[in-house]
Structures are given as structure tokens and as C-alpha cells.
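batch_manifest entry 22 of 60
target: SEFIR domain-containing protein
source organism: Panagrellus redivivus
requested by: lab member K.T.
priority: normal
notes from requester: please return C-alpha cells only, no post-processing; we will run our own comparison against the previous entry in this batch. if the run fails, retry once and flag.
--- input ---
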Amino acid sequence: MIAMHPFISFLAAFLATGIAIASGQSCTFVPKTQLHDGTPANVYFESDSRNCTLNLPEAPLETCDVSDFDVRFSPLAVFPPAKNMWPYVDLNITVIPKVFVSDIFVQLECLSSSHNENVYCKNHSFLRKYGEFYWPCRQHQVLSEKKDVKLPYTFEHACFRMHGPSQYRFNVTILPQRCRLSYLVAMPPDEQVEQRIKDFKNSVGKTPIVADWSPLFTIDANDPNSLVLRFARNDPDASDVTVALYLKESKSVSNLLQKEVLPSPKTEVSIAAPAGEYNAFVYVDHPYCVLKCPEGKSTDCRVCNFTYLNFTLHDHKMNGIQRFKHYVFFVAKVLCYVLGVLIIICLLVVLAMYLYCKFIQPRILRRRPPQAFAMTETPDVLIVYTDDCPEHTASVVAFAELLENHANAHVWIDTKDLLNHSVKPSMWLMRAISEVKFIILVFSAASKQVIAGEALPQRRPFPDLFSPAVRAVTTRINELTSRNGVDLTRNPLKTDSNALDRFIVARFAYTSPSAIPEFFSLLKCRHVVIPQDLGRLFGYLHEVDAPSDKAVIEIDADTTYLKDSMQRFAEYAHDNPDWLKERMKQTETVYHDPREFERLPLNTITEATTVDELAQHYEHLSKPDDDDDDKHADTGIAASSEKFELLGSMNDISSDSD
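--- output ---
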């Protein structure tokens, strides 16, 4: 006969005996239910899982009132008397009803386990009877009369063999209330939950087991107002126990919801928790270990032994105030996300528009053939402006020459027509406004001040006619809008009526848009910027409208002289930042009501207005003699300097009509 090593003989005997216990373990049930007289109550205990399962009430079952029941789970170390058997852990379940119940069902369901000897999770053939699968189930039934049973009473059972690490769900069903309580229980390895088992294994094994204590962990989610995290305290050193709850935001991100250190003898903590997926830990936070090692320090870091549970809450576990705060925070969070998304969308839209206008649209326009037209007519064009400075006036003159030389226009401008001293400026202006086809109002830096009544010092042999011209044009506009019903407040760049097409509001590129008074900036007439819109302006003068604001009208014009004049003005303004203040004549001011343009009288000048009527309307004008045959070649105004004296002040060009 071959002699066996003592340890091999012990291991073989343990495995044979252990399997027999796992497959057909017996437990002793000691009833603790008593009657009022102190005698034991008549109690029936069903240990057959099939019979217990068949006796369960059918679903649906409501959740029991947690205030009527106290359910506890704790590990119970079992040391068999035989020396060839390993010690093991049974789960002790205690149910203490505070109201009378006739039946208590306790059913185990294994969720996960890494222990190969865990028959509840690994060997499901052990749980089959008559071809059907039944989770381990125990029934405690009170047969005594309700009035005779002493409350509260205790149902205690320790027949479920545990193998750690593993996770279970326990369902406690109550009759006749027809309700149920569910608990999640996490079991650590045997040598961690019970230090005596570790000591026993170290005494017989060659390799010592180094494991700190970690408790049996229970999740109680039956209370709608809070989530209860509970553990069984059987640590011989009565250590402080840390409970940590993490809410999973994603597969790789978890946020700490609450962390609390419980000194002895505390064993549970209640937490307000929203619905979601959670990871819960319970451990002893020793100074030489941590729950999670930082990245890159795994070699020098020691992880504390812990008990772990992952679970999902389908409902919020919080009271009314906490629910309200949670909903407010949730709504605010959602609004922040939505606002952030909208901001990102807006930024993307703005970026797309910028890229389109900056890069894509110019390419499209370059590929699109420019619009060309023939300038067969010679329209009369009046240009009115303010004599801000010689450089600005030179730019206006260059602009007028460009229209005559390249736009085939006959330009009425004071620098050309009023050099003849026999021409009276006021009569020339009124006749020009009545006869020309287009009137271009060039606004510049001094325009608003001149319109407001401030006078520019006269440096030419004729006065500045901008103010009376603007007032006369405003009168004509009021007449047209009153007669044709044109709305002045609509889109200023588009018009559905050609009543105001003869009036063109213009400014040079070096002039700010704010130099244009509000009345004219909102006017539904044509607006141009010189020299950018010269092609569009040429089209206006020859009754050719661009199909869109971005369309190109091709012109063959040399703008070198105009651009040089504008450049000289820009240099002058840069070298003399106070040029306008020095130019203005502060002592000679004529104040006007700023609303005067809006209430100028209507129907004062018509196309059929004669010179006699103009002289009668503007009382300062002189009427020419009938026998004067010497007419001006361009204007038809008599050349007698005695009868048409040159107006030297702004007061002589009053166009008030009361």
C-alpha cells in the first residue's frame, strides 16, 4: 500500500465531504415565535425549495412598508467538528415583523460569483427538481391564532451556504399583506469576512494569507425616501468603516455621490439617491492602503480590501424636498446642455456664413459673367454736397468728372455751373432740382452740422448750397410720399415703387455711415458707397437694376483720379484730426427744429412750377425782367448781375414755406 502525504489526505477528504454538504446540507431550524403566555407558537418551516416556491403568492406584489419589518443579514462562521473539513460561512437571515404576518418566504437568487464551488451560481443542476429550476427558498408559517401571537416575533434562519466573493438578491415575501422586500447582498471571501477562518487556514497551509477584514454588505432600496447602505460589523478591532457610493455617468466615468466614515457601533447610512447606475464600496480605510491607486503608481500602492456592489436604481430614493431640488438641478443641467448646443450651432452657422461670404461666394461671383449694359442716354444728374475741405471737394469734383466721362451723364455741380457770376445760386439750385433726372446727395463729416444750422465759412465765390438743397429735396420727397403713399420706414435698400428712384444717397468710403441723417438712412431710395458701388450707380443712372445685391455690373471706367483724390483726403484727415472743428464757423448758427424734415409742407413745388412761382414761393428770390433777352446758355437765367445778386449768406437761401 502506498502511503499518502497527510495534507493530500486532508484535502481529498475535505473535497469529498464538502461536496456532500453543499449538495445535501441539513440545517436545524429553531423557532423563536412565542405566544402571549410565553409558550412557543405553532410554526411550520418549509425547507424544500420546490414546495416553498410553489407556495409563493402570484405577482404583482407591492413593496412592504419598511417601518413594519426589520430584516438583517450577517455572516455566521461554521467550524465543522471533523478535522478534515474547511470552515465555511452561512448567511444568517433575521426577519422581525412588527405586525402580524402568517407567512414569511425568503428566496435567494445568485447574481454573480467568481468562486467555482458556489453551487448557487455555478452548478445549477443542484437547483433542479423534476426538470424544473428553483432558486433556494425557505418558508416560515405561523399556524397559531393571530390574537395569541406575541409581537414582535423573530424568524431566524441560517441555512444558505455562502461562497465569496459573490453577489445575491434576497426576496422576502410577506402574507397576508401580499408584499415583498428585496435586498442586494455582497459576500467577500471567507477569510476576509471572518478573521477566524483566515487564522485557521494560515495554521494548516504553507502559504500565509494576508487579508484585512471587510464586511458583508447589504443594499436596501425598499424605502422610497432614501437608499440604505448597511453592513455587518464583526471586526474584532471595531475599526471605522468607510462607505462610498459612486454614480456612473458613463461606462468609464463615475462621480462620488457620498462618502461617509462610520465609527463603531454604527452599521448603516441613509443616502438620497436619484435613479441611475451605481457602484458601492465598503472598506476599512487603513493608512497603508487606498481604495484606488493613482495611475502610474500601481507598484508602490496597496489597495484596501473592500466589499463591492454594482446596482441600478429605477426610481429616485429621496423625499419631497430632495426630489424638488433634484428636478430643479436636472432641468438646469438640461437647459445648460441645450444652451451649449445652441451656442455651438450658432457658432457653426456664423462660421459657415463667414466661410461662404469670404471664400465660396467670391468664387461663384467670379465664375458668373458680369452684367453689362449700353449707356445710350445722357441723364441730367445734380450733385449736392458740403464743402468740408478742399480735399473733400476735390473728391466730389473727381466723382462728377467720372460720371460725365464714363457714365455718359450731364452733371449739374456748383463748382462748374456757378463760376459764372451772372448765375444766381438759388435760382440755379431750384431749377436743377426741378429739371434733373437724378439727384445725388453726397453726405460727409460736416453734413449733419450744416443741416442742423451751423454754417461753413465761405471760401468760394458762391455759398454752400447743401442745406437749402437738402430742405428742398425733403420737401419734394414729402410731396411724393404723400401723393404715392410710399412708406418711408420700410427696408431702406429695397423699393417696390420707383417714386423715389431719382434720389440717390451717397457717401465716400472714407465717410462713416453715421454721417447720414436718420431720415435719409431709412429712406427707401437708392444708397451707394463710392467707389465700391460705381457699377451699380452707373446702372441706376441708365435704369439698369442689378438682379441682387451681390451681382456685379461691369463698367469700363478709369477711377485712378477719383481714388487719388480720396487718398489725399484720407492723408489730410490723418494729419489734421481736428480739421472739422477748425473748419466750422461756430459764430454763425441758424437753429432748426430737428423734426423739420418730417413736417415740411407738401405740394410746394411741382414739375410745372415756373420761375415766377419759384420767386413768389421763395420771397428772397428776384424775378427776371421779361425783356431781358440775354439768357444763360445752360440755365436760361438772365445774366444781369444787378437783378441777380450773388447770395452771400445762408439766410438769403431760405426755403421756409409757412
